[in-house]
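Hey L., structure's done. Input below.
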Amino acid sequence: MLDVKKIIFLIVFFSTFQSCYSQRSITGKYQREDVVSTMAETGSKYIFDKNNNFTQTNFYHLGYKELFEGKYKLEKSILTLYYIPKIKTRKDYRFVNKKKITKNNSSNTYLFAQIKLTNKDLRKDDIELLIYDKNDKLLMGFSNDENGEFPFLSLYDSKIGYFLFSSLVYQEVKIPASELYGSTTEVNILLNKTLIKQSQKNDTIKYLIKSFSKKKVELKNRITNEKVILTKQ
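Output:
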């Protein structure tokens, strides 16, 4: 009779435990406590809402922030984060007086461009024009002069992948070389002076839940074994 009572108790106990376990909610604001300071990163915060949306904000020195968005799923002992890239609705550059080169059949491999920073405030800052190949290898770089102009580009190299305008003050602007080949053009660059960068991360990360309480969630990346501690705010 005693054994029967024990069995009944265990069944009720585990049923109650599983019910509570499945009803856990991660909704709210969390601070990541275990971030190692790399690439000037100073911390991360997460917000999980009731509709299974989440935002992740990474904080950097000089007040810069990187914002991630996506969906999450909390199922048994697994927390899955689905990162969704933020699609831009407009480009950060504009072509002026763009004309096709029609001199010869190989004109599609030529690239001509005059690039100028038209905003007077931009001319006071050091903006770097970096040219990369299709394998993300840096080929060359230029700085703007006192008039906000870069050297006139007259290039013949089909290996060029993209142009990157970089600064400590402004967000980066990337122009695919494919949009410049086979034409002559002036390019107006729009550099956004903002401290918030929208991440283009497109990834899925699964965490094993090591412990879960009202104030703290301890996670472990199932692939890298990285440990993550989230403290509720």
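The chain is about 10% helix and 50% strand. Confidence is low (pLDDT under 50) at residues 8-22.

-- N.
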